[in-house]
Design a protein that fits this description.
CATH superfamily: MFS general substrate transporter like domains
Largest sheet: 2 strands, antiparallel
Order of helices and strands: HHHHHHHHHHHHEEHHHHHH
Mean pLDDT: 83
CATH topology: Growth Hormone, Chain: A
Number of strands: 2
Strand content: under 5%
Radius of gyration: 22 Å
Shape: globular
CATH class: Mainly Alpha
Strand order of the largest sheet: 1-2
Length: about 475
Amino acid sequence: MTVPTASEPAAGPVATHDFLGHPRGLAVLFATEAWERFSYFGNAAFVLYMTKYLFDAGRPESVLGLGPVRAALELLFGRLDAQPLASQLFGFYTGLAYFTPILGGLIADRLLGRRRTIVIGGLFMAAGHFMMAFEALFLLALLMLIIGIGAFKPNISTQVGTLYAPGDARRDRAYAIFYLGINVGAFAAPLICGTLAVQYGWHYGFAAAGVGMLISLAIYLCGTRTLPADVPARSAPIAREKKRLDAAERRAVLALIGTCALVTLFWAAYDQQSNTVLLWAEDFTDRSIDLGFWHGQIPSPSFLALNPFMIFVATPLLVGLWARQGRRGTEPFPISKMAFGCLCVALANLVMAGAAAWSATGKASALWLVGYFILATIGELHLAPVGLALISKLAPARMTSIMMGVWFATTLPADILAGFLGGYWSRMGKDSFFLMIALIAALAGVTLWGMSYFVQRLGVSSHS
């Protein structure tokens, strides 16, 4: 590999600490990622778009290439009506969008460098969002987004680590702050893009997502001077040497790959939020609201803002708890935290199973969804940012971008599985459906706890 990684800063870490005690570059990456996630989650309700609009009578024929794609999916999964087809397409889209980062990491490490790869990815994403505004280009737009996310996502995440010298204890906190930036965008997107889509038309929501991506690119380009510079591939001796991994590095890579493989079950359960949980909010939740001076219906995409809102609330509490545990030497091993996160998602789905059983004859209170998102968010915070930091710590220096890509690539099998499971939404009782998802999340938790014990016994250590 050629580009310095989270464990090997490119041109030395930035010395100035004027963003919450961190280098200014963290503020640039925070804002860049916030707007990129605004654009991504601006399209998060497209399962609703497909089932309630695009796949209505007469409209599917207008989508270029949908016939062959549908035929291929039906060859694998059998006949697909509108809702199962939408869930399968959503699963493949999100899965491929998070598989391509492994290619984006390779391209950045070996060919283009992180900066150029990020900019190219951002341009592809912006084009994809604007193309979503045209029904005929729907599938082509998804392809553009998949390519763009693959180039953008792993390299932004890895650049956070390059701001810090090896062994800098602030790195874990930096990833927690960075993850908060992700959720600033995720919070605003369903409220703005979702409301525009519901009130004025889906295409306005998609166009707003495209504008968000252009803002993200502008922030990144204006702030590159605060980031460590890329090292050209031809100037890095390590690229010519092709040095083999030593025994400790091989153990670290195998431990990370094993952890990533088990995390697929977590994401298969968790990523029902923008799929079947959104359909629950649309069709089975009492969304009426009366404020005295105004009454109406809460747009169902707005419920997706509950997750990032809970992240704002819970992140400082959890970071403070882990800091206190760290001072006492009782902080759980990272993979153990991830196992606990899976169990929280299992509990969240048990809440939804209770909602379905309790409201079998009518619509459920929105408070059930609030309870679901509280538990699911606690689970996410124990897994997603912890996983990013784990990659940054354990991956060999010359493999950090690739291993970050592997982390994101686990979403491909996870979301294919999530789409397959989502296809049962219209065929099963809703309480049985949520019990099924809860069991999958619980299985992920149990297996990750076993992996945590195994990795600690191996004595895998940090390379940072």
